[in-house]
Amino acid sequence: MEQVETAEQIVEGVVVSQQSFLGPDGNIYTNNHVEISKVFKGSVVSEMDVVTEGGVFGDLMQVVIPSAKMNVGIRGVVLVASDQARGFSSLASNFFALDNDGKQVYGCRHAHEMGELEQLISRTTGIEPIELLKAEAEVQVLTESVERVTPTINSVHPLHVTAGTRTLITISGQGFGTEQGNGRIAFRNADDGGASYVSLNDGPHYVSWTDTEIQMYVPSATLYNTAVAGSGSIRVINSSGEFAESAEEVSVDFAKSEVIYSEALSKTKLVGTQQGGYEFTINQPLLALLGGSEMAELALQKWACNTGVNFRLKEGYTSSTSFNHDDVNLFGLSEPGQLPGYLLGRTITTFSGCGTSEGLQWNLIEVDILFNSDINWWTAETQPMPNSFDMQTAMLHELGHAHLLQHNSNPASPMYFELTQGSMRRQFDVYSDIHGGAFVTTNSVNTESTCGDEF
To answer: Is there a contact between 81 and 341 (Cβ–Cβ < 8 Å)?
Structure first.
């Protein structure tokens, strides 16, 4: 794992508080105060402040994809490095959540249990972890009167769903517990192709919980607590930590960006579609790389023609390579070293929040997309060479995030989480991409309120 190698600090701990702020570049960041129980790499400290990208500041929200997401009360392993260009000494590159007893790992494709993750980190760093606090002091200990019951899953309905659309899923069985308590549902992780599980603690996604039936909305939560549900089996983990895995597999067609804020589900909207759409300005470095090719314009048109979204390329270009909230929808190439080497690109979506009759609504007002200039890009229409990455696929993927779509579990879709050298995914899947994008567009156009005109 390159992130383990490049991390200056790796610790296990609990996020006890968060505070969002405006960074020196005008973007929104979140400071996470972490109480540390174990140190895998770096300075031995009992607590530290870790910065994550994105957050809510006033009536503005920024979502950075990809980036580390942390949430108050969640225990996990955080990888931290400095970012001198932005003036941060402790910027999180990843965060792997743990369950209540610290044994199961969520969101890590390389390790599903804490023991496996510890071994992976130790092999990479050559350092044995240092434990600061006894586990008994951190983990809620069950009383002897609580009976440990292994749950079983009899059925899951429906098996064909979408995420982030308030689609209700019902899980039937027994041994779930009469109350949710520390129980949770875990879905296959769309952000790693289903190699790991992701879950949400108690919150607005859970509609009801009894010993024999659980109902919840299929999640695609993309701020503070990342849980983008992908296709595959699901797990029920009861309050005593016992879990059952479904024999049936859930098929998640697409995932739309949604937000948990102030303990409530919030909607995200493309309200710019009602005001002439979203114009993207290409930057000079990307223009030079494409060498006169119309690839950028064609990528925007491909989404527009298939889903009805009003994306288009603005005449002219900019020299900017910065992620700034400046009313410019940037579509460009980064400076050398600006993005981590393990990222092909990054998308920042900026939203303006307002109240509606249906609750808080977040309106997309700006998009900034940058591709990593340190990557060997393939910009021709032919099959990419084995040592290069396909720029057309990368463009379609990042524009999908601008379209409020998250990763899906379809390896043939541009919105699959991973692109390998020499491969390409330039064709849209009817369900994963076209239906998902059309849902977002239609849902946005038919919204009751656009809450102002700031876009």
So the answer is: no
Place of tokens 């239906």: 435
Residues linked to residue 200 through DSSP beta bridges, in sequence order: 185
Q: Decide if 451 contacts 361 (C-beta within 8 A).
A: yes
Q: What is the pLDDT of residues 33-63, one digit of tens each?
A: 999 999 999 999 999 999 999 999 999 999 9
Q: Which of 2, 89, 8, 40 is CA-nearest to residue 340?
A: 2
What Cα–Cα distance (Å) separates residue 183 from each residue in 58, 155, 179?
33, 18, 8
Phi, psi of 238 (to 5 degrees): -85, 180
CA-CA distance, 320 to 308, in Å (whole number)?
29
pTM for this structure?
0.93
Packing angle, helices 436-445 and 295-307, rounded to 10: 70
Residue 268's DSSP bridge partners are: 362
Average pLDDT (148-171) is 96
Task: Name the residue type at position 158.
Answer: P
- Range with the poorest average pLDDT among 117-131, 190-204, 334-348, 441-455: 441-455
Over residues 304-325, the pLDDT tens digits come to 999 999 999 999 999 999 998 8
- Residue 402 and residue 411: Cα distance in Å, rounded? 20
Q: Distance between CA atoms of 345 and 331, rounded to whole angstroms? A: 11
Sign of CA pseudo-dihedral 94, 6, 64, 391: negative
368, 330 Cβ separation under 8 angstroms: yes
Round to whole Å and give the CA distance between 387 and 319.
28
Q: How far is CA 328 from the centre of its chain?
A: 23
